[in-house]
Amino acid sequence: MQPRTPLLLCVLLSQVLLLTSAEDLDCTPGFQQKVFHISQPAQFIEDQAILNLTFSDCEGNSKVHYEVSSPYFKVNHDGSLVALKNVTAVGKTLFVHARSPHAEDMAELVIVGGKDIQGSLQDIFKFARTSPVPRQKRSIVVSPILIPENQRQPFPRDVGKVVDSDRPEGSRFRLTGKGVDQEPKGIFRINENTGSVSVTRTLDREAIATYQLFVETTDVNGKTLEGPVPLEVIVIDQNDNRPIFREGPYIGHVMEGSPTGTTVMRMTAFDADDPATDNALLRYNIRQQTPDKPSPNMFYIDPEKGDIVTVVSPALLDRETLENPKYELIIEAQDMAGLDVGLTGTATATIMIDDKNDHSPKFTKKEFQATVEEGAVGVIVNLTVEDKDDPATGAWRAAYTIINGNPGQSFEIHTNPQTNEGMLSVVKPLDYEISAFHTLLIKVENEDPLVPDVSYGPSSTATVHITVLDVNEGPVFYPDPMTVTRQENISVGSVLLTVNATDPDSLQHQTIRYSIYKDPAGWLNINPINGTVDTTAVLDRESPFVHNSVYTALFLAIDSGNPPATGTGTLLITLEDVNDNPPVIFPTVAEVCDDAKNLSVVILGASDKDLHPNTDPFKFEIHKQAVPDKVWKISKINNTHALVSLLQNLNKANYHLPIVVTDSGKPPMTNITDLRVQVCSCKNSKVDCNAAGALHFSATSVLLVSLFSLACL
């Protein structure tokens, strides 16, 4: 066997050469001329021949089929190119694809002066235009196979052929790769004897655009003889996908009065077809505008970029005069560069005409009236304004200011957020007797500043006349509270003070009567005519009704108006302490063991309800007339405590020890209290006081409690 020639992958998209023998070199399959130049006429006339193309498959041109890249042209069986209708522009390039069962090729028609409206099929098919490759003796010969997507039945359908000019007798072709023996399996197959490649089903370029297959020859046992040689299958795009808008909703805003040509928004659509072809070359236009006032063409969309711009004058783009400040545009995207045969998709663009502050707020009238009772607070009048701007913006929302007539800051004004009204309020009670009338000057502005060519005029200020109504006001005590200081225990009937209340209604000449409102201890009396306050009982500083030495009482002053008005006054009586309470001791019971080695009995403390200097230091003594001197002893610990102890052990019994305690007042007060001491039997950690009496307290425990009380003082 002679050595095989190198494997050759033809890159000519349009040729499938059917070689019957290695010596068959007298015919070259394909177009005899690959490139044609045509001058762009004013118009291509329907059915008028433009040029003749010569194609040969070297087998008699049986069943030759022509396809043109533009839908406006066709190639007749005799090779003449004609227009299907009158056409003015077709682009810079046309491609003619010729195919028969034996060969296929591509011719390029360059339109001199044509517009660039479509992509090159060379890019689509990855077809490199070259001069014909000289025929030469070779082994496996393959060319790229072109298959349009969306082909219909019948299947399988032959789409190409592989030739091996030096194939041994009995050898077979084998096809492998994705689409054959790899997923998706079974799309392509090859006749192992003839090399014919067929497709078994419809292809979808948007799913898989190309298939990389491999061809080889094998012997009867499956052993590879030649190859594998790459075989590329290219799926030719068809316009089977409509443009879609995927990024909605589309909402744009433009300020009213914007200059003509202002860009509002951009809308772009997506087309799943091949972006290198007119199948995905989109053009945009506005199909409908709602509303269509004041102009049916308020906006324009750039057909290539999708930019929506204004096309009316700024005067027509006035939000306050528009029927509706919201426009809805039906935007259409059409592929095939907008030609009639293109597929379309639509979406809605909503455009809002935004407000700017080109109208100042104006009061609905120059003067407002209000009345208010003296002493009252709250809103007294709502000031109304008109503003043509958008209520949802700061260009409409009002801000009010009192610019005159409010020196005492008795008035405030706030904006009602729902109605935009100015709510004028009294915040400090007014007095009819001081001023029965008030006049305020109020201005209104917007939250947002006005545009430069608009200003606030006289209608942005208003006058408010306020009338104060006279009200019967209650008498007022002066001073309030009233204070007085007295010693406790003063005699009943003592005069404390004379209260004084005046009537604010000075123009009404009313009389005032007094009465007691609150007297918790019942100690006081008041003269209803002149307001003199005296005592009806002894004042006691230590009473539970006295807090921090102060007794509080309330009085009423009632005028003679109709109806009468009442005022309340407070009297604070500070009571000075008198030494009228003797001290008391604690505890009054103690225990001690009959055999105790520690003869301490109890620590006594003393307290006094009075204040210093009528309390401690206290003096503690044992009443000597009632107790033997050599049994008990009392010792001072500090100003408030003393220690009681035994001088010897006593028998088990109850003992009564009179304790004398005296305070430091002048004159001092003395109290004698019996301290009951139980002497108990204490054995085996058990304390038995039964024989001594009913009490069962440990003397040690009592002593510890007493020490703890001492430590807390």
TrEMBL record:
Signal sequence segment: 1-22
Pfam families: Cadherin, Cadherin_pro
Residue span, Cadherin domain: 147-245, 246-363, 364-477, 478-585, 584-697
Keywords carried by this UniProt record: Calcium, Cell adhesion, Cell membrane, Cleavage on pair of basic residues, Cytoplasm, Glycoprotein, GPI-anchor, Lipoprotein, Membrane, Metal-binding, Repeat, Signal
Principal location class: membrane
Keyword set includes Calcium: yes
Protein's cellular compartments: Cell membrane; Cytoplasm
Gene Ontology biological-process annotations: adherens junction organization; calcium-dependent cell-cell adhesion via plasma membrane cell adhesion molecules; cell migration; cell morphogenesis; cell-cell adhesion mediated by cadherin; cell-cell junction assembly; homophilic cell adhesion via plasma membrane adhesion molecules
Molecular function terms, GO-annotated: beta-catenin binding; cadherin binding; calcium ion binding
Gene3D superfamilies for the chain: Cadherins
One cellular component (GO) term of this entry: side of membrane
Membrane disposition: Lipid-anchor; GPI-anchor
InterPro entries referenced in this protein's UniProt entry, alphabetically: Cadherin (IPR039808), Cadherin-like_dom (IPR002126), Cadherin-like_sf (IPR015919), Cadherin_CS (IPR020894), Cadherin_pro_dom (IPR014868)
PANTHER family: CADHERIN-13, CADHERIN-23
Function text: Cadherins are calcium-dependent cell adhesion proteins. They preferentially interact with themselves in a homophilic manner in connecting cells; cadherins may thus contribute to the sorting of heterogeneous cell types. May act as a negative regulator of neural cell growth.
Annotated protein name in UniProt: Cadherin-13
Lineage: Eukaryota, Metazoa, Chordata, Craniata, Vertebrata
Gene label: CDH13
